[in-house]
């Protein structure tokens, strides 16, 4: 009986080892090994022309100090066709947006997270490209927007977010940040001078173009806990916003 139990245990152990080895192989197969050929920096993003198995392609990620000729690794990526970068004044037939590249192929282990403003690839084990996108440096500005009937303030919106979820509302504020042509959208940050427990900044996605400093009134749908992937995650956001009077 003991011999039979031992044999069964050995079979289970071997099976577990084989399953683990298979999972590791499958995981590694989804990792892209590339060599950087060209680096283009824009506001908060880096475009990289890369070479993978003899084929050239473009990827884009939150700002990183990648070096031409060096080898990097990334996993997955969101494909965008006929993508227009207005900052570069350039169209990409195909480009992949990724949230992280690494100098090591094991992307399941992040040995050290660093900010994109202080990267030395020769001394770092890993680069987390999602940190800057998920936690942008936002400063509360001295903004005063007069109350207008039918306009929801930022403080009210954050305080009672669940009440407004999936509803189309109007907001008004000063544009403090404008990031065009990211994942097929323009991204606007506004402030109106109100604050709810430190929440003073509101993000809108849109097709419209604005300038930092503009005071705008916009209409759009409220979404909560929205995760676009690739570093763009929001507690509350206004989607598909349009300018209104």
The total of beta strands comes to 12
Strand order of the largest sheet: 5-6-3-2-1-4-7
**What average pLDDT do the residues reach?**
77
Question: What is the radius of gyration computed over CA atoms, rounded to a whole number of angstroms?
Answer: 23 Å
Q: Indicate the CATH class of the largest domain.
A: Mainly Beta
DSSP helical segment count: 4
Compute the separation of the termini in Å. 84 Å
List low-confidence stretches. 4-29, 109-136
| Corresponding CATH architecture of the largest domain | Beta Barrel
In what range is the share of β-strand residues?
Answer: 35-45%
Structural class: alpha+beta
- In helices, the fraction of residues equals 10-25%
Gross morphology: elongated
Major β-sheet, in short?
7 strands, mixed
The topology string of helices and strands comes to: HEEEEEEEHHHEEEEE
Q: How many structural domains can be distinguished in the coordinates? A: 2
CATH topology of the largest domain: OB fold (Dihydrolipoamide Acetyltransferase, E2P)
């Amino acid at each position: 009986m003991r011999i039979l139990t031992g044999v069964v245990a050995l079979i289970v152990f071997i099976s577990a080892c084989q399953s683990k080895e298979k999972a590791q192989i499958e995981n590694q197969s989804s990792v892209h090994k590339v060599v950087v050929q060209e680096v283009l920096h824009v506001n908060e993003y880096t475009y990289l022309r890369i070479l993978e198995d003899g084929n050239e392609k473009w990827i884009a990620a939150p700002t990183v100090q990648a070096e031409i000729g060096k080898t990097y690794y990334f996993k997955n990526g969101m494909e965008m066709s006929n993508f227009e970068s207005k900052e570069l004044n350039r169209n990409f037939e195909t480009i992949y947006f990724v949230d992280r590249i690494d100098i090591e192929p094991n992307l399941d282990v992040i040995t050290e997270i660093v900010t994109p403003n202080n990267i030395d690839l020769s001394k770092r084990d890993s680069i987390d490209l999602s940190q800057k996108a998920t936690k942008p440096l936002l400063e509360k500005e001295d903004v005063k927007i007069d109350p207008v009937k039918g306009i929801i303030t930022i403080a009210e919106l954050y305080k009672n977010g669940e009440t407004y979820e999936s509803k189309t509302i109007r907001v008004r504020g000063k544009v403090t940040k404008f990031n065009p042509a990211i994942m097929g959208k323009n991204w606007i940050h506004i402030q109106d001078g109100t604050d709810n427990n430190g929440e003073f900044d509101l993000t809108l996605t849109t097709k419209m173009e604005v300038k930092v400093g503009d005071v705008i009134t916009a209409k759009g749908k409220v979404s909560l806990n929205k995760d676009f992937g690739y570093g763009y995650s929001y507690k509350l956001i206004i989607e598909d916003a349009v300018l209104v009077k």
